[in-house]
Write a structure and sequence with these properties.
single chain; mainly beta; Immunoglobulin-like; five-stranded mixed β-sheet; 5 helices; disordered N terminus
């Protein structure tokens, strides 16, 4: 951070008596996406002079602030400002500050998973959901994803694009879960990770159409009965490649009679949608299935067009030289049969000169040695029908020369090719004869022949004709050869398809899912569409062929009368053109004739939106009179209903994008003579959850914008930010505002001074607050700052009815439920800290007692009367004692003895981390840190007394049905403790203390406060067997916690807990290196005596058993300890686990 040298400059200026203002130039780097402050001091006045962009700077006497800049969005990365300054000693200056914006590569954030459930029994490879993240300086599409630990990789796999799937079959029962840690990385290898819980849900069959695909003989209608796995459904044709071949009446789907040879693809498909009304309050169900009909062939056509291939034809005769012997191959036979495959045809002949071998080879039966004209009749059969054709075979002199074979093969050519480019040249083997060239065949009229070069008459077009058949011919006199080839046209993407101008369609409000809206008009055939904008609440969808349908229930004329969709063509063979499709919503409720409108009864409540993590209270209403309301389906777990107040529960966004939730509401008319008896109406309401701007990862003041207060009453507002970084702290200041003089600020408490309502005409007062995030260290380095305007309105006393009872609203009830849950969790935190303090003090008493037992009996801690004299021989010892006793003497030599010891000062630091599971889904993760310092001494041989101060801090993250969040508790304790030792019978121990605590709650500027006291008394015996110390005990505990009132719970609450505990401590100590190592086990059973039924989120149970295992190591006056503790309920599944580390030392 730069240090301004203005004070030194002013001294120099004064010493040189300069009268004119000097120009001072300073440079500063500014990290992107953070406010950057150039600090000033000793400023009397400051005014703007010049800058590159005035709107980007904030000027005050304490500094020049460059507002947050986005490095990527700036063309010029350098911004400057000039200001005129007069110092407090009157010296004028002009300050020229140049800011250079620096790029920061940030890790991805806001990692989300689109779904966090998987059905029991799901097989390997089942996709669970898709992970997404956001990165300010990287295209989100360039982020890659991976799994972050061995456990995640054991059960899951994830693609680089974020698709998460299960690796093995899900064998866990519903209610079980998996944990998976997903890592998101940008191309610069900056990464972040987040843990997700995948919950196993019950596998339930989805609503489905059960009609199977069918087949039908050609040229016959096929009637198909539509069914579902739940019955009672309405069906409609939703689309499909061949929907024009089908008709639907109720549950009967009819496929129209079609010839097998109508096209190459013999399968025809149609999309069927089934709609089923919800039962027992459930949601309406929808499903779509593609049903396929396969047309089978009937053998109803005989073979035709028998040909002898590879034979030499002259003037229509098959020419054969007279030198051919028996079994000479004349040619191969083929025929055409549209309903039989070529290899399934059979050929036969009854000729005496010729035979057919291998089904299709025409050969000579015997040598042909004389010229003659012979005939052969060939029969082609498909097994059912047959066809005959007679060929003339002319045996000619062998001296006659035949023409060579044509060598051309099939060719391919790109569509739209120029006609000037030759297609092919007729080619053949060498010959000394003159050759005439010609073409024939099915498509000869599409070609030109010049000499022997073939070309297209017109440029070929793939869409008009994708292939051609052409026969090439060569002749010499009566000799001829021919060959048929295929010319294939290669398709080009011409991008001539486009969408028609903006279009208008309409659909009735409250239409069912898959109701047709209309088809987008285009030029050409389009096979790809998408809706890119305007589809609020996802009410509409579009098919690849442009059919728009209703996609979600809840279209409401009262909420919105029309939607403008931006539709885009995505087909490869089209330009990426868009058009606006206006969909008008037709009113169906309250429409019609006057009488119909007067008798109409319908719900008038509109669709709403709310910020994420914010509940929304919706007032249900009808068009006339009053009604009762019920929830009949939809996302019912997200809503509660009380009378006509429908409350949407606070909900977080999963992927940062808006989310919609639907609820089906039924209204029943309260009896009214003007309406039909039991008139009802049902409507689907839509709640859209939108992104909270405070959750954008930037620094914000989270305190509400507006407050109110009764007149002549101070209003204290606790300021807060979204800064959760323990290495940063917030500094608040009043910077300006219309009414800044009406406010005072101390720390984070902003106080509005008591003001009368009539003090001025405008009863709303404004103040501008700046919050600065500062590093929590000695330098207190400035990080970033943000500003916000707060308002306080003084309430008109004439509008407040102090005698009227306040009716609780659903929103108030929800707030109080949460506040009570927070209060319970806060009490649990206080009780946990008190219990830890009690254990610390009892452990101190145990330490003193064991230390005393280890000392020599000569010292007895300084409380013996003197030195006892004894002899090894028992008879001598007895004789001497009798003599001394007879003379009034003792065998103890008196010595000087202290009645009290010096005070011992000790300190103990403790850290505990763990988690607990309460009843149901209530869970808590916690970490606890405490520091205790105490002093104690013996006031008699068998009495110990001590005092201690304690500081404890516990951070708890709770998850429960009423409250989920963080509660951070800080508690101070003052305690006294003592023990009365009963010689070898054990000891009585007592602890007594008072406590004061504060409870900070996440996502809230409020703070809970509590006071309390705690006490315990215990009897403990000390036994030893085989060098193992045993210490059984019985203990009575009592604590009393008082939670103070707050803005929501306006009355305080006091709870007292009493419990009895039985247990035993087992330990064994041995020398280890230069100290002593103690292994210990503690077992304890504890029972709640009051059993008042309080169900804290983290309270284990009314009865519980705890086990603690650990090690102590003592060297000199320092003891370190580590232990594990498990607390288990005996009457439910609640439990907690914790790991504890402590260090104790003595001053």
């Amino acid at each position: 951070m730069k240090t301004i040298k203005l004070f030194i400059i002013s001294v120099l200026l004064l010493s040189s008596f300069q009268a004119l203002a000097a120009l001072i130039t300073e440079r500063m780097n500014a990290v992107e996406n953070k406010d950057q402050v150039f600090r000033l001091h000793s400023i009397k006045t400051i005014s703007y002079a010049e800058s590159s962009d005035r709107e980007q700077f904030i000027i005050s006497k304490t500094g020049i602030t460059l507002k947050k800049q986005n490095y990527e969005a700036l063309d010029n990365k350098t911004l400057y400002i000039k200001v005129d300054i007069v110092l407090t000693d009157g010296v004028p200056l002009r300050l020229y500050v140049i800011f250079t914006v620096l790029d920061v590569a940030e890790a991805p954030k806001n990692i989300q998973l689109s779904n966090s459930t998987i059905e029991a029994g799901s097989v390997n490879g089942t996709v669970i959901g898709t992970a997404t993240a956001a990165d300010d300086d990287t295209n989100n599409a360039d982020l890659s994803y991976s799994l972050d630990d061995d456990t995640s990789n054991e059960y899951f796999s994830i693609t680089s694009k974020g698709e998460l799937s299960i690796k093995t079959k899900v064998n866990k029962k519903p209610g079980g879960n998996y944990l998976v840690k997903i890592n998101a990385s940008d191309p610069q290898n900056n990464s972040a990770s987040k843990m997700f819980e995948i919950t196993v849900t019950k596998a339930t069959p989805k609503f489905a159409i059960t009609t199977a695909d069918v087949s039908t003989p050609e040229n016959a209608d096929k009637v198909i009965n539509l069914t579902t796995n739940r019955g009672g459904a309405d069906f409609l044709i939703a689309g499909g490649a061949d929907e024009n071949k089908f008709s639907l009446s109720g549950t009967t789907l009819t496929f129209k009679a079609t010839d097998f040879e109508a096209r190459d693809d013999k399968t025809y498909s149609v999309e069927i949608t089934a709609n089923r009304a919800g039962t027992n309050g459930g949601a309406n169900e929808h499903t779509t299935k593609t049903i396929t009909v396969t047309v089978t062939d009937l053998d109803d056509e005989a073979p035709t067009d028998i040909q002898i291939n590879d034979a030499v034809f002259i003037d229509g005769y098959v020419s054969l030289a007279d030198d051919k012997g028996a079994n000479f191959l004349i040619g191969t036979l083929t025929a055409t049969d549209i309903d039989t495959a070529d290899n399934e045809l059979t050929f036969t002949t009854t000729s005496t000169d010729f035979k057919i071998v291998n089904n299709n080879e025409l050969r000579t039966k015997h040598p042909l040695t004389t010229t003659a004209l012979k005939h052969v009749t060939i029969t082609a059969s498909d097994g059912t029908r047959s066809f005959d054709k007679t060929f003339a075979i002319k045996v000619v002199a062998s001296s006659q020369v035949f023409l060579p074979e044509i060598t051309n093969t099939d060719v391919s050519v790109v569509e739209n090719s120029s006609t000037d480019i030759p297609l092919l040249t007729i080619a053949h083997g060498k010959t000394d004869k003159s050759i005439q060239y010609s073409i024939s065949g099915r498509d000869k009229d599409f070609f030109n022949l010049k000499d022997r070069v073939v070309s297209f008459k017109n440029s070929p077009d793939y869409e008009s004709k994708p292939s051609y058949s052409l026969t090439l011919e060569i002749k010499n006199g009566f000799l001829a050869r021919d060959k048929t080839i295929t010319i294939t046209i290669i398709n080009l993407k011409e991008k001539t398809i486009s969408i028609a101008a903006d279009q208008t369609m309409s659909v009735n409000e409250r239409s069912q899912v898959n109701t047709p809206v209309g088809t987008v008009a285009t030029t050409g055939i389009v096979t790809g569409f998408e809706i890119t904008a305007g589809n609020s609440n996802n009410f509409f969808k579009i098919s690849p062929t442009g059919k728009i349908q209703v996609a979600g229930a809840g279209l409401n004329y009262e909420s919105k009368q029309n939607y403008t969709l931006t539709v885009k063509i995505t087909d490869d063979d089209a330009e990426a053109k868009t058009a606006q499709i206006i969909i008008q919503i037709n009113r169906t409720r309250g429409a019609g004739t006057l009488d119909e409108r007067l008798l109409a009864f319908f719900i008038t409540t509109n669709n709403v939106s709310t910020l994420e993590n914010t509940s929304k209270v919706i007032t249900l209403a009808v068009n006339a009179g009053s009604a009762t309301f019920d929830i009949t389906g939809g996302d019912a777990d997200k809503f509660t209903l009380n009378g006509n107040k429908l409350t949407f529960k606070a909900t977080a966004l999963k992927d940062g994008n808006d989310a919609t939730y639907r609820i089906n509401i039924k209204a029943t008319k309260v009896f009214d003579l003007h309406f039909p008896l039991f008139a009802t109406d049902e409507q689907t309401l839509v709640v859209t959850v939108t992104n909270n701007p405070d959750n954008d990862g930037k620094f914000h003041i989270t305190t509400a914008d507006a407050f109110s207060t009764p007149e002549n009453t101070n209003k204290v507002i606790t300021l807060a930010t979204n800064n959760k970084d323990p290495l940063m702290y917030n500094v608040f200041e009043i910077i300006d505002g219309e009414d800044a003089n009406k406010f005072t600020l101390k720390g984070d408490e902003l106080t509005f001074k008591a003001t009368a309502f009539k003090a001025r005409n405008n009863a709303t007062y404004r103040v501008n607050i700046r919050a600065t995030k500062v590093e929590n260290n000695i330098i207190n380095f400035f990080v970033e700052a943000v500003e916000k305007t707060l308002t306080v309105t003084v309430i008109n006393p004439n509008t407040v009815n102090t005698n009227a009872a306040k009716l609780p609203s659903v929103e108030d009830d929800n707030t109080k439920v949460t506040a009570r849950a927070v209060r319970k969790e806060s009490k649990t935190a206080s009780k946990t800290l008190l219990a830890k303090t009690g254990k610390t003090l009892r452990a101190r008493l145990s330490h003193i007692r064991h230390k005393n037992q280890q000392k020599s009996s000569f010292s007895a801690n300084g409380f013996v009367s003197g030195i006892q004299v004894s002899f090894a021989d028992s008879q001598t010892n007895s004789f001497i004692n009798r003599v001394l006793s007879a003379n009034g003497l003792s065998n103890v030599i008196p010595i000087s003895s202290r009645k009290v010891e010096r005070w011992d000062i000790w300190t103990k630091a403790k850290v505990v981390i763990g988690k607990s599971n309460g009843s149901g889904a209530n869970k808590t993760k916690f970490n606890l840190k405490s520091l205790n310092i105490g002093m104690d001494r013996r006031i008699a041989q068998d009495k110990i007394i001590g005092f201690a101060l304690g500081l404890g801090k516990q951070d708890r993250t709770a998850t429960g049905s009423d409250f989920s969040g963080d509660i951070d508790t800080t508690q101070y304790t003052l305690s006294s403790y003592g023990a009365l030792e009963l010689s070898n019978k054990g000891s009585i121990e007592a602890v007594l203390g008072v406590a004061k605590a504060t409870h900070d709650i996440s996502n809230s500027a409020d703070q809970d406060n509590s006071n309390g006291f705690f006490a315990s008394i215990a009897y403990r015996a000390d036994l030893q067997t085989q060098s193992v110390d045993l210490s059984p005990f019985i203990r009575y505990d009592i604590n009393r916690i008082k939670m103070k009132a707050n803005d929501i719970l306006t009355s305080s609450e006091t709870n007292t807990d009493e419990a009895i505990a039985l247990g035993i401590d087992i330990s064994k100590t041995a020398n280890y290196k230069e100290g002593q190592l103690t292994r210990f086990v503690s077992l304890e059973y504890k029972s709640d005596l009051r059993r008042d039924g309080n169900d804290y989120l983290s309270k284990n149970a009314e009865q519980e058993v705890s086990v603690k295992l650990g090690l102590d190591y003592q060297q000199d006056d320092i003891i370190t300890s580590v232990s594990y503790e498990r607390i288990q309920s005996t009457n439910n599944k609640a439990h907690s686990n914790g790991i504890e580390g402590t260090i104790r030392w003595k001053f």
